[in-house]
# Entry
Amino acid sequence: MKRIIIKPLITEKSMSYANSNKYTFEVHPDANKIEILLSVKELYKVEPLYVQILNVKGKNKSFRGRAGGRTKDRKKAIVTVKKGQKIKGFEIAEKSADKKEDKDKGKK
# Structure
């Protein structure tokens, strides 16, 4: 059996999507929307509503001024879950006023 979800993608853009119940994952290149939907439901115990799939082409890379290779192609999935449900690992740590006050005290 192939592993459908390879890893969650944690980027600035994906974290902003997480605020609107959309979570981004790198998935197996042969995976389809139904397989991704069932896999997210099983792994994260949430109720996904729908899935968007993007094929991301690899970029050309150079080394010491010479064209040397290419990064691999990959497939991303953006999964929208039911309102009120969250997936752990996509939370943004809130900056508290207490931490800022502690830093100010150390400077005096």
Remarks:
- The first strand starts at residue 5 and ends at 8.
